[in-house]
Every structure is written in C-alpha cells, then in structure tokens.
Design a protein that fits this description.
With about 650 residues, the protein is an alpha/beta fold. It contains 18 helices and 17 strands. This is Glycoside hydrolase family 115 protein.
Length: about 650
Amino acid sequence: MELVRLLLCFFVFVIGTRAIGQPSSLGFSEADGGLKLGGTGSAPTIVIDSKDWAGVTRAGNDLANDFGLVTGTKAKVATGTSGLADTPVIIAGTIGKSPLIDGLVSAGKIDVSGIKGKWESFTSALVDSPTTGVSSALVLAGSDKRGTIFALYDISEQIGVSPWYWWADVPPKKKTAIYALPTKKTQGPPSIKYRGIFLNDEQPALTNWVNSNYGGKYDSRFHAKVFELLLRLRANYFWPAMWNSRFYTDDSKNGPLADEMGIVMGTSHTEPMARADKEKVKPWDWKSNQNNLKKYMQDGATRAKNWETLWTMGMRGGGDAASPTLDATALVDVITFQQGVLKSTLGVSNLSAVPQMWCVYKEVGGYYQAGMKIPDDVTILWSDDNSGNIQRLPIPSEVDRIGGAGVYYHFDYVGDPRNYKWINTIQLSKTWQQMHLAHERNARQIWIVNVGDLKPLEIPISHFLDMAYDMSKFETPDSTDTWLKAWATREFGGDVADATAEVMATYGKLLIRRKYELLNNNPFLYSIANYDEAENVLNEWEALEVKTQSLYDKLDSATQIAFFEMVLHPVMAGKVVQRVYINAARNAAYAKQKRMSANELAADVKNTYAQDAVIQKRYHGLLNGKWNHMMDQIHFGYNNW
C-alpha cells in the first residue's frame, strides 16, 4: 500500500501541480490517505494564531480568496480550531511565534528539525488529530515570517493561482476537488538570501499608469500589489521607484506596510541610508556640506530603524553620476560614519547581523580597484555593464567575507550609449549563463534586478527570481527550456506549453542580435546586399508571429488576455519595429539604385509604422483600460540615450 501511495503522489505531481520546480503536496483527484480540502461548493478553514505575524494572516486571507477563485467557494480564516470538526482544516504558523504550531511541535505531531533556525524555510504535512475535535489537517510550519508566508502562497500556486493573476491577468485554473496528499514537503532555505527587483526608469509608462490609478503617487495601495507579487514569487527585497518619488514620505503607510507584509526594503545604489534621491540635501557634496549630509543619513536610519531594512552604504554624486570631489579615502570616511550611525541607532555593537550593501556600479568600481578597503560585514554588490554582462565577481580572497557578495543586474536601462526600456528584450538563456556564473562564484547574498516599469517584463522577472530561490533546478544550460515549459503550463495550460516555450526561446534568439532602440544605428545591422540577410531576418519574425498567433487562437478568451500581454504582444510589436527598420533600410538602398520597388517599400514602412499605434491601442484597451499607459514608452527614432 505504501508503494501505491508513493506512486500516486508522484503521478499527481507530474500531471496536477502548477507550481514551478518544487515538490507537490496537493492533488486534484481522490488519493488514498489524502484529505479533501475543497472543491465545488466547499472550502477549508485556514487557522492562523492571532499571535503570529500580521503578514502571515494577510497571506492566509489571500489563500482564502484564492480558494474562491479556483473552486467558487472562498475559504474562511480563523484564529483557533474550536468548532471545526466538520470542515477541512489548514493550520499555518511560524515556529516560535505561533502557540498553535509550537504546541504541535511539543506534542510530537510535526517534525520541524529540518527547518528550525533556517532562513525562509517551511515544512508541510498531513497530520492526524492535530487538536481536539479536528481529525486531520494540513499543517504548514514556517521557520520565520516569510517561511510561513511562502508556505501559504505555495498552496495558492499549487491549486491554480498564478503569482501573475493580477499583474498579468492569468486566469485561475478551476478545480472541482483539491486534496492534501499524505506526504511531507520541505522547502528552503533559498539559494540567494535577498532576492528582489528595482522599479526604475519609470517615466512615462509606469508613472502615467500610477497617475491614472493611484492619484499620482506610488502609494501603499500600489505597493501592496507589488509586495504581494514579490512574495508570491518567493522574493523578499525591493528598491522603490526613485525618479520623482519618495517611498517613505509619499505615503506614510509605505514603510510600515513593507515591514508588515515581510518585504525587506532597500534603496538604489545612489540613495544611501534608506533615503530617497529626491530627499537629498544641496549641495550633495561630502567635502563641502558634510554636516548636512550626516544629518540626512542619520535621519534615514532613525526613520527606518524599526523596519526590516537592507542598508545602502557609501554615496555617489547627484543624479546617478560620479561625485567630482569624492575619492576612495573620503568614501571610507562616509561608510565609517554610516556604520557608526547604524550601531548607535539600532543599539548594537556589532553589525555582522545587520544587512548592509555597497554597490560597485559605474565609477564606484574605480575606488575599489584603487585599493579601497570595505568593512568585512558589508555585502559587495557587483553590477553588470547595464546590458547583462556581469563585470566582476568575487575572487578567492573575497569569498569568505562575512557580508558576502551579490549582483545588481539589468533588464532595463536608461543611459549612455542607448536606453532600452520599452518591452521585453531579455534572452533567458543569457540571464541563466550570467546568474549561474554568479552563483558558482559565490555571489549569493543579494540578487537585485532593474525591471523598469515591471509590467512588460513578467517572464524574465519570474525566471530570475525562480533561479534566485532555488538554483539547484538550474544547473545545466537546458534548464531554461525546462523552466519555460513549466512556466507556460502554469500560465496557459499544457496543450500549448511546448510550443509557447519554443516561441519565447526563438524570440530571445531574434532580439538578442540587437535591442529595438538600437536598430537605427548606422551602418544598419543587417546586410541588404549579401545573402538576403535582412529579408531572411524579417521572414523569421513573420514566421514567429504566425506561430504565436496560432497558439493564441487555440486558447479560451480569458487565457488569451494573459497570453497577449506576455507572449503575443512582444512578438507582434517587435516584428513591427523590425519590419519598419528593415524595409526602411531596403528602401534607402533600392532608391539609390533607382528601383521601382523602392516605392512599394516606402508604402510598406508607412503602413507598418501605423500598425504600431494599433497594437499599442489594443494593449491599452485590455480589460476596459486596466493597463492604459503601460505602452507609452517611445521606441522609434532613438539617436542618443
């Protein structure tokens, strides 16, 4: 019988789960020894002790809503187990914070030895008679606040709610029955300790959207949506938008909300000590205005001292540029002062347990190369070249530092020599190659990626954060293909998963040749005269669009929306840009040769250019304008950054 149970659990894992890359604890047909949690007309009660973290209760309420999305019946959330004899029960809680979970541990009902004291880990098991009156319950125990939160959202993903259900409109996968399987599951700790995103370069698209939906401020309503997405993606770290925003003062609820939900707040490489760029004192110069800069930094520490924060150390010049008066010696003085502030403000004598990072970005690398000494408890955050090529990673003498190392990566960039910030231009296999290298070279403390407006980069964000959570699933080059198929299955269903993975792999191959904003560089990228190169490239894009459209046509109307946003739109819009530039180049060449076909190409360029606006309007009109402005970014006619 035990062999049958194991085989059944494995079979359900293979065909039933929608969670990417992690073991299953649920099934969708009756299983020997399983517990029916819900189905058509029924849902469980989720029990979370009132003494547990508020963020855990919040995630529990999200799970209750998710049961409603997939079964039609919303689950209930309770703080105790009395009166639950006739209802399926999920008990969730944090070791050392939930008396209910601690009681189960003391009674020998659950074994938490594999996760206790570990970072962001959880275990789940089906437990007989966990409390008086409850015959069986699915128990989720977290090692810490986020461990429990991840356990709850893991159930959400397994029952059929994508992390992108709101941000990319992925429809929940309806279920008529949901069973907890008689198997123990343990996850964590994550491969990378701090994993997150940086909202940046947010004007015009994201800011225009925020102006329309949140009254012109990146407020707590907006951030609640972002934080929920991050936690569902098993991320924990966030750099807020900073072009014209002040996270902590734009809405006084922002800071407490992040801490309650379980998000570790940071600030970008140019914003030290939890202060926003737009809060900087003038002149922003350590040499001439040191007293005011010190107060600025002290005030940041004082404001954020009670919230979970990863402190940005050091400083740069104003406006994301080098400081004309700062050198390595002065920068050491800055960091020494900042560490003194943290010790006095946080009331500690040793900062080894206080997360701090110094980002080696642009000119900052020159200070380190010149021999600048960084305190051992500060994480060195290495950066890429803004185009996905990591410039430096730890050498043998650096791998044993207490603070360790991390990576600041880019899926979006504004700056010299050219911006790229319109839609997804990320080849996933390139991301894998770079981040696998970072992991192998022990840059495992922080991974943070610049995601621009967030919305057009759903796929690379998911890929990046899944790697950061569990790199053991990404040890070989073909792991990206495996991941793409699993991702497409979760979002769109198994019938189109393989072909969708092929589409996105081909898309990555085509766009890696040159990003859209760089296509007007001279000389033109593709040859008009030799080997029909330009025409062959255009034919590849045309064929890709035909294949993608055929997949779209196979989907139900609800799934088509998500597929359009993440797959069909970038292919369609990308092909338009390619066709405009390729045929404009052909037109210019043929006109010099006085060919009559030059006129046909000129007309085609005009007609194709007009299609760009049609596609943009279609995107902005989705769901009664839910994403209006998200495609506002200019993408034709770049001649400088």
